[in-house]
């Protein structure tokens, strides 16, 4: 059975800086617009199938939510859909913004 990993903000930031992972944000649109990880995309029920179809086999995915709870379910879903390397960001966007305020984009 496919599974996901949990990663901390430091490891996620390393992946983000080196562009080794695709970041997806599952928060509501208002929260995403207010603050998100630069380069991340907002993943919804409406666009998840398109996202999956555009992934390469070796793409690593990091799922971001508010506090790192909802992202675990989404990461598990992506793993069950065949994404081989998928992670949930521990602490979510809240932890990311506290650890790396310079790496937060506001629309």
Automatic annotation (TrEMBL):
GO terms for molecular function: transferase activity. InterPro entries: GlpE_sulfurtransferase (IPR050229), Rhodanese-like_dom (IPR001763), Rhodanese-like_dom_sf (IPR036873). It comes from the Bacteria. Residues 17-105 form the Rhodanese domain. The keyword Transferase applies. Keywords: Transferase. It holds the Pfam family Rhodanese. The keyword Glycoprotein does not apply. Transmembrane segments: none annotated. PANTHER family: FAD-DEPENDENT OXIDOREDUCTASE, THIOSULFATE SULFURTRANSFERASE GLPE. This is Thiosulfate sulfurtransferase GlpE.
